[in-house]
Specification:
There is one protein chain. By secondary structure, the chain is of the alpha/beta class. It has helices at residues 5-15, 21-31, 38-58, 78-85, 102-111, 116-123, 127-142, 147-150, 187-200, 234-237, 252-261, 275-282, 295-298, and strands spanning 67-71, 90-94, 155-158, 173-179, 201-211, 265-269, 303-308. It has one domain (5-308): Vaccinia Virus protein VP39 (Rossmann fold). Helix 4 links the parallel strand 1 and strand 2 (90-94). Helix 3 packs parallel to helix 6 (116-123) and helix 5 (102-111) runs antiparallel to helix 7.
Length: 316
């Protein structure tokens, strides 16, 4: 469904201000939005998970046996379930708002049956073990078990829960991660999340984030591109920002800079200006508030990065 981006922004702002608006928003997403094609969205998430698993492995952190913390559970726990099937010791997944939907959780578990070979290859776990865990997971969920019981206590879902202020003990987790979440978080909260990650990670632990920092309205309005929101000042942009699709408009490098400021050593940074984005940027009027950012940095609309805590465990 194609929809003018301003119309979507106004509609979401309205739904965010009325009783029952969240449920109405979910039903619209199921009927017309990203959730109408579950399989396609799930496949995209699994490809994102595959990339994350590879990055973690290259950084010296295999998923098998790891203790992980996900920021932003979403409608269904693709990453936590995939990590569980791959042999993770624990996956805590939190959301500021409780979004999880039971029918999508079950669909997610069932669809994972088609990805057991991928999960086995990405984690080094025997495919037989991955397949067995997947069958047990789907079976337990069909019987009505909750996420924790169905995963034998490995996956812990907490919502509402604030990733910037957890009750977790210090220095007990191997990895904190998120996928397409930080672009929807207030800048000050991003800093707080990074500081909390520094506190809960073990010495030498890592923080992985994949950030989709382009204009998300471009997914529903094909007349604009992912740099469109750079035309507007913060004051102007507030007309279309809303509770369901808040976008902080931070550029890719700013997330990395904030991680460094929190004390992390950056060991992966995929920031890369693409010719298509540079051309789009050159053809549009950018609001003066972004004029201080070089085009090759301003145009970047996605980034994966890893920050590692100091091996000594010293706090910054």
């Amino acid at each position: 469904m194609t929809m003018h981006w301003r119309a979507k922004g106004v509609l979401q702002k309205l739904l965010g201000s009325v009783p029952g608006g969240e449920q109405a928003h979910y039903l619209l997403q199921r009927r017309f939005g990203g959730l109408r094609g579950f399989t396609r969205e799930f496949e995209i998430k699994m490809d994102d998970w595959r990339l994350m698993a590879g990055h973690l492995r290259d950084a010296g952190l295999p998923i098998a046996g790891a203790r992980l913390f996900e920021i932003g559970s979403g409608w269904y726990p693709t990453f936590p379930f995939a990590c569980y099937l791959g042999g993770a010791k624990q996956v805590i997944t939190v959301d500021l708002t409780r979004h999880i939907k039971w029918d999508l959780v079950l669909s997610c578990a069932e669809q994972l049956a088609h990805h057991t070979a991928l999960i086995a290859e990405a984690t080094g776990a025997p495919e037989h073990d991955v397949l067995q865990r997947q069958r047990e997971l789907a079976g337990r969920l069909r019987q009505g078990d909750d996420v924790g019981t169905a995963t034998q206590g490995v996956v812990v879902y907490q919502a509402p829960s604030d990733a910037s202020h957890t009750t977790l003990p210090a220095h007990e987790l191997d990895c904190v991660f998120s996928n397409s979440v930080l672009e929807h978080v207030l800048p000050d909260a991003v800093d707080a999340i990074f500081r909390e990650a520094m506190r809960i990670l073990v010495p030498g632990g890592i923080m992985f984030h994949s950030v989709n920092c382009g204009d998300h309205y471009a997914y529903v309005d094909h007349s604009i591109n992912q740099l469109n929101y750079l035309k507007y000042s913060d004051r102007q942009w507030r007309h279309w920002d809303n509770a369901f699709l808040y976008q902080n408009r931070l550029r890719a490098y700013e997330f990395v800079d904030r991680a460094v400021a929190a004390g992390f050593d950056i060991v992966l940074n995929t920031e890369c200006p693409r010719e298509t984005r540079l051309a789009q940027l050159a053809a549009m009027h950018v609001h003066p508030q972004f004029a201080h950012i070089p085009p090759e940095r301003l145009c970047v609309t996605s980034i994966d990065f890893i920050g590692r805590t100091h091996v000594s465990g010293a706090q910054p």
